[in-house]
Structure to design on (363 residues):
């Protein structure tokens, strides 16, 4: 009998997307092939403690009335103290310590700062543990909308016009910020540079709303973007990195149809708020899908992506414009990333398996 692969599933975290990470963990725990994988669920509390959590998908299922979270149960998971060791240990509340065995791969399904932004990836690099997904640089680039746009524009990939504002600039010269924003026209979007799931995002339809939108974004980050609104269909595509020597590949596309909301906000994404329809596969011509796939892979390669990413576009009258790239996209069974691959012939359990196997091959 083949020995099972030990996977440390890392979820939760300190960001405002903590509950979404827990919901992603629920999906993976329920679907991962238990004939091939042993799972060690490591939950990070909102305060940053690494804890050993129950291997129970129902514990972390998304509930709009009671969002899931990692509770501090008093356990503390310890990472290897020296590179070369892959053994995890856990200290119990009574002070006793036991081995959790050696880990073959870490699956860090963390969203937002202190997880998706290269910080966890750097820690895993330091202790010598292989992991699923992009490395330090690509994770940091994908998390930061300003630098994503800068890199993509340099690679010749169309992005929406924007201006970036620091908290210092806003406090020191608010009129200059307002003047720069007006050059972008209405409506405009104000976003934290480093946040996801539309947390802290506002649509400004009148300049009287700008100051409040800026303050909302600064509550999430000390650097924000003000972007021109792009008129077009909102379409997304899922990208999977290849094994060493193989190219990345892209799925069919999905579309977000906004009918009764200003934009695809947090409530619509995760709390089943009305006014949004997710259509997959999107109604595109063969030429449009081919171009979208090409741009998605080019964006993935431009930031040095590995493992997986979801690339979000606007399809305008003049062609595709990249909105952003997510190096650890929402990964619940109904999220757009796995749904796009399901429509491309790769089931949710098989997608999890593919991500782990690609990471093991890279390691």
């Amino acid at each position: 009998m083949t020995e099972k692969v030990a996977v440390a599933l890392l979820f939760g975290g300190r960001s405002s997307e903590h509950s979404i990470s827990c919901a992603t963990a629920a999906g993976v725990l329920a679907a991962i092939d238990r004939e091939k994988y042993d799972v060690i669920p490591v939950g990070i509390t909102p305060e940053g403690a690494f804890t050993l959590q129950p291997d129970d998908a129902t514990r972390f299922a998304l509930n709009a009335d009671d969002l899931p979270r990692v509770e501090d149960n008093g356990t503390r998971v310890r990472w290897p103290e020296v590179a070369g060791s892959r053994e995890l240990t856990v200290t119990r509340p009574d002070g006793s310590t036991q081995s959790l065995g050696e880990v073959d791969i870490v699956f860090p399904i963390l969203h937002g700062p202190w997880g998706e932004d290269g910080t966890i990836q750097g820690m895993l690099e330091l202790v010598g543990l292989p992991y699923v997904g992009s490395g330090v640089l690509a994770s940091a680039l994908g998390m930061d909308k300003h630098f994503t746009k800068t890199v993509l524009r340099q690679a010749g990939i169309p992005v929406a016009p924007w201006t970036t504002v620091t908290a210092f600039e806003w406090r020191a010269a608010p009129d200059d910020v307002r003047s720069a924003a007006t050059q972008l026209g209405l409506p405009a979007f104000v976003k934290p540079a480093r946040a996801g799931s539309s947390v802290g995002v506002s649509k400004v339809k009148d300049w009287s709303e700008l100051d409040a939108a800026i303050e909302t974004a600064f509550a999430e980050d000390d650097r924000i973007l003000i972007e021109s609104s792009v008129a077009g269909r909102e379409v997304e595509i899922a990208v999977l990195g290849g094994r060493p020597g193989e190219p990345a590949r892209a799925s069919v596309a999905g579309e977000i149809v906004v009918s009764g909301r200003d934009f695809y906000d947090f409530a619509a994404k995760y709390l089943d708020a009305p006014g949004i329809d997710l259509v997959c596969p999107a109604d595109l011509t063969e030429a449009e899908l081919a171009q979208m796939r090409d741009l998605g892979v080019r964006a993935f390669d431009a930031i040095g992506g590995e493992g997986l990413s979801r690339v979000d576009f606007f399809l305008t009258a003049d062609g595709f414009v990249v909105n952003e790239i997510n190096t650890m996209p929402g990964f619940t069974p109904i999220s757009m990333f796995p749904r796009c691959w399901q429509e491309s012939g790769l089931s949710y359990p098989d997608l999890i398996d593919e991500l782990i196997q690609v990471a093991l091959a890279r390691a």
Summary: The two ends are 23 Å apart (CA to CA).
